Amino acid sequence: MLKPAGAGRRHHEGTIEGNEGMKANLAMLAAAAAVAAALPARPATLAVGRGERYEKPSQAAKAAKDGDTVVIAAGEYRGDVCAWRADNLSIRGAGMGKTVLDADGRVCMGKGLWVVCGTNTTIEGVAFRGATCPDGNGAGIRLDANGDLTIRSCSFEGNENGILTGPLDRSTVTVEKCRFRGNGRGDGYSHNLYVGAVKKLVFRDSASDHALRGHALKSRARETEILDSVFDDGGDGESSYLVNCPNGGRVSMRGCRLVQSPAASNGTMVSIGEEGAYPGTAFENEGNAFRNLRPQGGQEVVIRK
Q: In which domain, by residue range, is 235 found?
């Protein structure tokens, strides 16, 4: 039987058209995949605790990506030290008396229980205790990144330094509703918290006392704000200065209560600029209550410019 004229050609053209359509679809799929790969990953929430995907904070620290939230269940995490490297992290415990990190003789990178290497990190609801290291600077939290750090509703006890930072000129460190007690090595060079030459320190609605012969708060920040906080060593504390800003800067202290114990090695409660003051050093002292229990007395504030 004769085939109708042009039948073979039409079949061939249909095959070509089908192939071209398939190629177009594949190209569109490839382009869509490329666009999806280029988009930033959606932030995730990483749960930490018994029965969760991550049983230890250090496991979540390795998995965390920029912008993630890490939620750590109540419990004691002993010897679990780590570095947080992602940016824009939110790390939340169940509360300072509920989520407890105990160094148990270990520190991360020879620096601290947690070393913050990412920028713009928020940490809240965690207790840090027992960080020590051979150089005497074991910290509950060590900030290594030149970016902002917010610490809220955390406690620090029995560390060589509660919080420790280096000279990070773009960093603002904010401490809110935190508790510092009994940190220091007893050598006078380690403190409840020691913030290096950052852009700004805000210490708000917090308490710091009974540093082990170090300072209750030491700040080399260009600007230091201390608001509505308590530095009360009572009758048995051994803190040196209650507040020490050795390079001065713009220091404001408002609505605070300071009590220096009879055993304090320094008669001065607040010392500013004794190691060489920044240009423009100034101190704002508003609504603060000072009480010095040393038998020989002392001075509330000494400013050197």
A: 42-303
Planar angle of CA 6, 10, 16, nearest 5 degrees: 145
Nearest by Cα to 242 from 219, 265, 209: 209
Is 300 exposed, middle or buried (CB count within 10 Å of its CB: 0-12, 13-18, 19+)? Answer: middle
pTM: 0.88
Q: In total, how many domains does the chain have? A: 1
The domain that contains 266 carries what CATH number? 2.160.20.10
In which region does residue 184 sit, left (phi positive, over 0), alpha (psi from -120 to 50) or beta (all else)?
left
Show Cβ contacts of residue 230 under 8 Å, excluding neighbours closer than 6 positions.
206, 207, 208, 209, 256, 257, 258
CA 222/CA 27 separation, integer angstroms: 56
Q: What 3-state class would DSSP assign to 14?
A: helix
**pLDDT tens figures, 31-74:** 656 655 556 678 999 999 999 999 999 999 999 999 999 999 99
